[in-house]
Amino acid sequence: xxxxxxxxxxxxxxxxxxxxxxxxxxxxxxxxxxxxxxxxxxxxxxxxxxxxxxxxxxxxxxxxxxxxxxxxxxxxxxxxxxxxxxxxxxxxxxxxxxxxxxxxxxxxxxxxxxxxxxxxxxxxxxxxxxxxxxxxxxxxxxxxxxxxxxxxxxxxxxxxxxxxxxxxxxxxxxxxxxxxxxxxxxxxxxxxxxxxxxxxxxxxxxxxxxxxxxxxxxxxxxxxxxxxxxxxxxxxxxxxxxxxxxxxxxxxxxxxxxxxxxxxxxxxxxxxxxxxxxxxxxxxxxxxxxxxxxxxxxxxxxxxxxxxxxxxxxxxxxxxxxxxxxxxxxxxxxxxxxxxxxxxxxxxxxxxxxxxxxxxxxxxxxxxxxxxxxxxxxxxxxxxxxxxxxxxxxxxxxxxxxxxxxxxxxxxxxxxxxxxxxxxxxxxxxxxxxxxxxxxxxxxxxxxxxxxxxxxxxxxxxxxxxxxx
Length: 469
Ligand SMILES: Nc1nc2c(ncn2[C@@H]2O[C@H](COP(=O)(O)OP(=O)(O)OP(=O)(O)O)[C@@H](O)[C@H]2O)c(=O)[nH]1
Ligand SMILES: [Mg+2]
Hints:
The protein is built from 13 helices and 18 strands. It is an alpha+beta fold and 469 residues long. The chain has 3 domains: 3-165, Beta-Lactamase (2-Layer Sandwich), CATH 3.30.450; 170-342, P-loop containing nucleotide triphosphate hydrolases (Rossmann fold), CATH 3.40.50; 346-466, Beta-Lactamase (2-Layer Sandwich), CATH 3.30.450.190. The strands form 4 sheets. A 6-stranded mixed sheet has the order 9-10-8-11-12-13, sandwiched between helices. The two termini are 17 Å apart. Residues 176, 178-184, 199, 201-202, 223-225, 286-287, 289, 324-325 line the site of guanosine-5'-triphosphate (GTP).
């Protein structure tokens, strides 16, 4: 990995384009600097706005304020990566009483990681500028707003002194007391079942590398024995600094050690706060095996642990999952949520899944990667969501078995149940295949509906997945 220390943002920011979907289609309204050729400006407008156009919710003129998405999109032909903000400008005379608009900040591909690292601040700058634009804004005013935005971001990026690497390096930490199950969890999500027995306590820190959607994930399994814990806290600048995602495992069967566990969690939290870093946190309430799920003591302890950890980490975004190595679904579920918490594109991807669901009248849709990690989902209610999530890996296995034995020539499989149908579709993403599982009511039209919209759906989600992490 090459680290290029960049002192000036001169070469980083390639431009900002403000576009509006007019009656004749997406039009670039302002482009700063103006040196980007017009046909490229048009391409950028079209690609970024077309993603928002899937939203049909705003057609009735309501919820205009709720339709706001950020997404990171690749523009490989131009070697740009863009952070795009999608919003609506209310306009009585337009169809749907609003016009779709985008502001795209374009960065040289090789420096795209800065968009992920600085997403929070950049998003604030961009959305503040977007808020200043309404249908009364004159073209001179719009030009001024975008120019000021360009200057703000330019000077902001000048001040960012962190090394900018061409590839985003994702660091995921697995922490918790000794014997809380970190190493077991990691082996199980990698489906290394044979390695689940005879796991020895981790000495120091073990590191693993994994590729998901073309990105390198560095997974750090931090030994929890007291001596390693102390060392880890003492060397926190090495271990905890620049963490993109933190897992914290709690052995729910060992309530005697809860005070010690809270103390360790508290120390991690104070160090992160001192670094002024707030990575998403996933807490696994672990070892809740299927046979003790109804155990009274366990049930009583769950809300107590959640409340205490939330109190300690109140400035953080924390999600809790009941997990057990004997319930593979619980493991992929918590891991999937962790990955998606790191993605700048999770909202916009979900809006595309919702778009597909409306078009084929689906009750639930899941987008899975090769190892059954849920990248995005849609469902009409909680029950449908749960059923589809639990059954997805099984359908995926069946699909795989039939393909391996060459009993499946198409990249689709269909299961028919009473009144419902499961469609399982393999999409050929350039880096790796992803899978779509759709639960739909049994009707003759669903296949023709799907054939109609699938190519469009693929063309929308592939760029979003390329820059998902
Ligand atoms: N019943 C049950 N036991 C589990 C589960 N997960 C892990 N274990 C067991 O808990 C023990 C400790 O697991 P490890 O994975 O070594 O724990 P660790 O957190 O990595 O421990 P250190 O490396 O010392 O920090 C092992 O005997 C595992 O088999 C689970 O979900 N249910
Ligand atoms: Mg371990």
